[in-house]
C-alpha cells in the first residue's frame, strides 16, 4: 500500500530539508543570514622569491576544467605561451567523495596521492582547510606555492617572461593597475563570487540580495562595453580574464543551476559580443571545456541537483560567430 500523499510529502520534505541543510553547510559555509561565505585560500607564496626562483619546468599547475578559478590560470598560461614551461595536471570532481581526484595519478606518482585532500596533506601535514584548485605546485620541494587564482595569474603574467612565447604581453600593466583593481574588487564580490552567493544561498533573502547584485554589476559592465572593447579600454587585462571565466559558465550553468536567471549573457548586447571576442582570441577556445563545465556543476553539486541530470543545451555555436568588437 502506498503512503497517503500528505504523509509521504511531509516525511520526504522533513528528511530532505534536514539532509539538504547538513550538506549545504559542509559544501557552502554560510553566515547567520544564510549567505554563502567563501573560505580563504591559505597558500600565498610568490615566484620569484628566495625560496621559489623563476625557472622553467619546475612548477606545475593543478586544475579542474569545470572550475572558473582554475580556468583563469589556464587562460593566462595560454595567452603568455607558457605551455611547455608550466605543465598542468588535471583533476576531476568526485561527487561521491566530495573532492577533486587526479585523472592521471602518474603525473604526481612520487607523492602517491589519489585525491586533492591527500595532496594538500602531503604538502602540509595536518592541513585542515579546503583542498581547492587551482594549485601552483613546486615539484622540486613538493610544496604548494599558492592556491589563490587571483595571485597565480599575476605570477604567470610576470615571472616567466624569459621563457614565455609572448613575453611582451602584459595583462597587468602598471598604468592600468588602479582601474583593474577597482573592477576586480566589484566583479569578484558581485559576479565571480556573486553567482556562488546565489547558488549556495540557504535563504530566500540571501539569494535575492546576491542575485540583484549580480545583475546590477552586469548591467554596468554592459554599458561600459558599449563604448570600449575591454573593461579597462582597448587592451585585454587580468580584469577581463577574471570576468570571462564566469561569463562563459553563466548561460551554461549559473543561469539554471544557481538561479541567476533574470537574463542570460546571450541577451546582453555588448556582454555577449565581449564573450565571443575573448573566446575567439588565439588559444582561448581550447581552454574552455563546456562539457566538463556542465558535467562538473550539474553532475557533482548533489544538493543543488539531486537527480544528477545534465542539461543538453544551451547551443553554443554562437560563440564562434563574428563579434565586430575590433572596431571599438
Ligand atoms: N580562492 C580560490 C577559490 C578556488 C575554489 O573555490 N575552487 C573550487 C572549485 S571551483 C574548489 O576547488 N572547491 C573544492 C572545495 O571547496 O572543497 C581561488 O580563486 O583560487
Give an account of the 3D structure:
The protein is an alpha+beta fold and 328 residues long. The chain has two domains: 100 residues, Glutaredoxin (3-Layer(aba) Sandwich), CATH 3.40.30.10; 154 residues, Glutathione S-transferase Yfyf (Class Pi), Chain A, domain 2 (Up-down Bundle). It is 42% helix and 8% strand. The protein has a five-stranded mixed sheet, with helices on both faces. α2 packs parallel to α4, α2 crosses α8 and α5 runs parallel beside α8.
List keywords for this structure.
binds glutathione; 328 residues; 42% helix; alpha+beta; Glutaredoxin; five-stranded mixed beta sheet; Glutathione S-transferase Yfyf (Class Pi), Chain A, domain 2
List the helices and strands and how they pair.
Elements: H1 5-27, E1 59-64, H2 68-80, E2 88-94, E3 99-102, H3 116-123, E4 135-138, E5 143-146, H4 149-158, H5 177-192, H6 194-199, H7 204-227, H8 238-254, H9 269-279, H10 290-300
The protein binds glutathione.
- Number of extended strands: 5
- Overall 3D shape: globular
Based on helices, strands and strand pairing, what is the structural class? alpha+beta
Termini Cα gap? 69 Å
Overall mean pLDDT stands at 94
Tally of discrete structural domains: 2
Strand order of the largest sheet: 3-2-1-4-5
Note the beta-strand portion.
5-15%
CATH topology of the largest domain: Glutathione S-transferase Yfyf (Class Pi), Chain A, domain 2
Per CATH, the class of the largest domain reads Mainly Alpha
Main sheet: strands, sense, barrel: 5 strands, mixed
Helical amount among residues, as a percent range?
A: 40-55%
Q: Point out poorly predicted stretches.
A: none
Helical run tally: 10
Amino acid at each position: 500500500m502506498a503512503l497517503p500523499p500528505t504523509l509521504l510529502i511531509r516525511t520526504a520534505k522533513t528528511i530532505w530539508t534536514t539532509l539538504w541543510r547538513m550538506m549545504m553547510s559542509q559544501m557552502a559555509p554560510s553566515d547567520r543570514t544564510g549567505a554563502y561565505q567563501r573560505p580563504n585560500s591559505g597558500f600565498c607564496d610568490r615566484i620569484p622569491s628566495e625560496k621559489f626562483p623563476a625557472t622553467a619546468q619546475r612548477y606545475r599547475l593543478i586544475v579542474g576544467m569545470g572550475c572558473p578559478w582554475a580556468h583563469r590560470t589556464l587562460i593566462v598560461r595560454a595567452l603568455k605561451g607558457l605551455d611547455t614551461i608550466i605543465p598542468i595536471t588535471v583533476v576531476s570532481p568526485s561527487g561521491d567523495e566530495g573532492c577533486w581526484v587526479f585523472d592521471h595519478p602518474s603525473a604526481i606518482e612520487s607523492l602517491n596521492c589519489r585525491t586533492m585532500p591527500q595532496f594538500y596533506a602531503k604538502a602540509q601535514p595536518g592541513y585542515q582547510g579546503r583542498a581547492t584548485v587551482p594549485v601552483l605546485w613546486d615539484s622540486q620541494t613538493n610544496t604548494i606555492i599558492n592556491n589563490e587564482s587571483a595571485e597565480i595569474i599575476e605570477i604567470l603574467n610576470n615571472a616567466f617572461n624569459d621563457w614565455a612565447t609572448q613575453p611582451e604581453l602584459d595583462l597587468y600593466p602598471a598604468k592600468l593597475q588602479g582601474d583593474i583593481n577597482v573592477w576586480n574588487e566589484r566583479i569578484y564580490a558581485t559576479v565571480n563570487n556573486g553567482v556562488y552567493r546565489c547558488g549556495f544561498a540557504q535563504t530566500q533573502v540571501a539569494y535575492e540580495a546576491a542575485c540583484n547584485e549580480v545583475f546590477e554589476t552586469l548591467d554596468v559592465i554592459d554599458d561600459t562595453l558599449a563604448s570600449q572593447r575591454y573593461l579597462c579600454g582597448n587592451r585585454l587585462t587580468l580584469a577581463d580574464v577574471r570576468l570571462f571565466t564566469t561569463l562563459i559558465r553563466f548561460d551554461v550553468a549559473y543561469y539554471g543551476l544557481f538561479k541567476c536567471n533574470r537574463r542570460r549573457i546571450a541577451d546582453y548586447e555588448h556582454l555577449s559580443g565581449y564573450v565571443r571576442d575573448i573566446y575567439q582570441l588565439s588559444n582561448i577556445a581550447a581552454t574552455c571545456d563546456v562539457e566538463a563545465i556542465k558535467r562538473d556543476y550539474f553532475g557533482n553539486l548533489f544538493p543543488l541537483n539531486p537527480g544528477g541530470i545534465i542539461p543538453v543545451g544551451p547551443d553554443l555555436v554562437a560563440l564562434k560567430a563574428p563579434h565586430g568588437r575590433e572596431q571599438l
